[in-house]
Amino acid sequence: MSTPTVRTALLLLLWSLVGLPLLARADVYDDVERLLRNGQLERAEQLSAKHLQERPQDPQMRLLRSRIQEARGQHEQARETLQALTQEYPELPEPHNNLAVLHAREGRLQEALEGLQRALQARPDYTQALENLGDLHLSLARQAYQRAARTTQPSPSAARKAEALAPLLPR
Question: Taking a C-beta distance cutoff of 8 angstroms, is the pair 64, 36 a contact?
Answer without folding.
Answer: yes
